[in-house]
Automatic annotation (TrEMBL):
It is found in: Golgi apparatus membrane. It is a single-pass type II membrane protein. Pfam families: Glyco_transf_61 (PF04577). This is Glycosyltransferase 61 catalytic domain-containing protein.
Length: 412
């Protein structure tokens, strides 16, 4: 593979050789609920037979004489589903025809190579969503093909494709097709429209969505290879006399800043860590991935920076500082449970009402102190404007046992 990314496929095409086509079929996973998780699953459709991808008409055409109920279905092939997404993700129509002669003529034949059509629109550009909504679902959907799969990307962003090129190249050996500007008609025997997903930063075995038992441990292994990350385990205390375990504190700009960051850094140093402070956006993704992988403990206030735990060596320690305001469920489900699923050790430090900046903005009888869940009940906009805008200032005496516990875990 030459590593280039053109807007038309190079090596995924085959000579004009007609082979028998499998009988047309389609199945769509359109379950909208995940028990215990308040987010709907996206629609994913798998098609086999004479399947033609026609980007010019934003459609996938399936020859299927005996089955027409897929006609008129429109799919936004982005691995998250909520009410804010429609303007951000292009729709792709599924059309059925009774005979191949009724479908647009093939201009590129791909033989037995399958295709996956997915979007990089939506909330991409935020590292949490890049991972949760695209890269992890893409791994779950396509890793089974061992690189012999053609990707079609809607809502195409050249900068995004370039940014994650090392990962994309691990999943497909072929040049990505820009769905938004390609006018060919691509013929396949197997097409997946949309991406399979589990929960955010989580992959569990499932009878239909993950029958092969792919996992986040496997995804982390792929990341190590993609970025040349050397460490697959943390430093064990006493392993190298005189060498301290490394701690990375991820700093933030804007909201949820750690106001006494330097004091926390000094205390962690006194406790016995070699401390580095960095913003996730300071360097390119490869360089920051190397920084994270070189550390044994990652500390961060709740936010997208914690997604970088995907680069930690197995059995490293994640410490999440949980803001005030009923954030425990989000903290545990977005980063705590994922950390455990990645083979990491996880600690939470839940701040008190005296350790945040909300006290300077709201009276003590305000709902944010009296009944934080009432703000959650008002929806994401209210939560983002009130709870998510706080900064934190840790009680050092109260936080110190959490650092000592992190040290203890490195001895296990």
């Amino acid at each position: 593979m030459d590593g280039s990314y053109s807007k038309s496929p190079q090596s995924a095409t085959v000579a004009e050789i007609e082979v028998p086509k499998p009988k047309g079929s389609i199945s769509c996973d359109d379950k909208t609920k995940d028990e215990g998780f308040p987010y709907a699953r996206p629609i994913v459709c798998k098609m086999s037979g004479d399947v033609r991808i026609a980007p010019g008409s934003s459609s996938v055409i399936l020859t299927m004489p005996l089955y027409q109920s897929a006609e008129g279905r429109r799919v936004r092939p982005y691995a998250r589903h909520d009410d804010s997404l429609p303007p951000l993700v292009r729709e792709v129509a599924i059309k059925t025809v009774a005979n191949g002669s009724d479908a647009p003529e093939c201009s590129v034949r791909h033989g037995d190579i399958p295709a996956v059509v997915f979007s990089v629109g939506g909330y991409t550009g935020n590292f949490f969503h890049d991972m949760s909504d695209v890269l992890i679902p893409l791994y779950l959907t396509s890793f089974q093909f061992k690189g012999r799969v053609q990707f079609f990307v809607t809502d195409y962003k050249q900068w995004w494709v370039k940014k994650y090129k090392p990962i994309l190249q691990r999943l497909s050996r072929y040049d990505i097709v820009d769905f938004d500007s390609n006018d060919d008609v691509h013929c396949f025997h197997h097409v997946i429209l949309g991406l399979l997903r589990d929960r955010d930063l989580i992959i569990r075995r499932h009878r239909t969505r993950n029958p092969k038992g792919h996992s986040m441990v496997g995804f982390k292994r792929l990341l190590r290879r993609a970025y040349g990350l050397r460490r697959d385990r943390p430093l064990a205390l006493g392993e190298n006399p005189g060498k301290k375990p490394r701690m990375l504190i991820i700093s933030r700009r804007g909201t949820r800043r750690l106001l006494n960051l330097h004091q926390v850094e000094a205390m962690a140093t006194l406790v016995g860590f070699d401390v580095t402070v960095s913003e996730a956006r300071d360097n390119g993704i490869k360089r920051f991935a190397e920084t994270v992988n070189s550390c044994d403990v990652l500390v961060a206030v709740h936010g997208a920076g914690l997604t970088n735990q995907v680069f930690l060596p197995a059995r490293a320690v994640v410490v999440q500082i949980v803001p005030w305001g009923g954030m425990e469920w989000m903290a545990t489900n977005f980063y705590g449970e994922p950390a455990r699923g990645m083979g990491l050790r996880y600690l939470e430090y839940r701040i008190t009402g005296e350790e945040n900046s909300l006290a300077g903005r709201y009276p003590r009888d305000h709902a944010v102190f009296r009944d934080p869940m009432a703000i959650h009940a008002q929806g994401w906009k209210a939560l983002a404007e009130v709870v998510m805008t706080q900064d934190v200032s840790l009680d050092l005496d109260r936080f110190r046992p959490t650092l000592l516990r992190a040290l203890d875990l490195l001895q296990d």
